[in-house]
From TrEMBL:
<keyword id="KW-0408">Iron</keyword>
<dbReference type="Pfam" id="PF04023">
    <property type="entry name" value="FeoA"/>
</dbReference>
<dbReference type="InterPro" id="IPR008988">
    <property type="entry name" value="Transcriptional_repressor_C"/>
</dbReference>
<dbReference type="GO" id="GO:0046914">
    <property type="term" value="F:transition metal ion binding"/>
</dbReference>
<feature type="domain" description="Ferrous iron transporter FeoA-like">
    <location>
        <begin position="2"/>
        <end position="72"/>
    </location>
</feature>
<dbReference type="InterPro" id="IPR038157">
    <property type="entry name" value="FeoA_core_dom"/>
</dbReference>
<dbReference type="InterPro" id="IPR053184">
    <property type="entry name" value="FeoA-like"/>
</dbReference>
<protein>
    <submittedName>
        <fullName>Ferrous iron transport protein A</fullName>
    </submittedName>
</protein>
<dbReference type="InterPro" id="IPR007167">
    <property type="entry name" value="Fe-transptr_FeoA-like"/>
</dbReference>
Amino acid sequence: MLPLSELKQGSRGRVVSIAAGHGATRRLMEMGLIPGETVEVLSNYFGPVVVRVRGVTFALGRGLASKVLVEVIE
């Protein structure tokens, strides 16, 4: 298990948990980052982490992305 912010570009992971406060957790879940959901990292260089969840692409700040714990899908 590792933070979403550490997944490499092109990698996919399954959300295991969110280690954030109530407000941030709710916001992330509204974006589709719920336990069991698959997330694909489209860009993870400097700056925000760009991901795709359920066909929707969005950017997360590195701090927020570090709160999402995922297991890598090989």
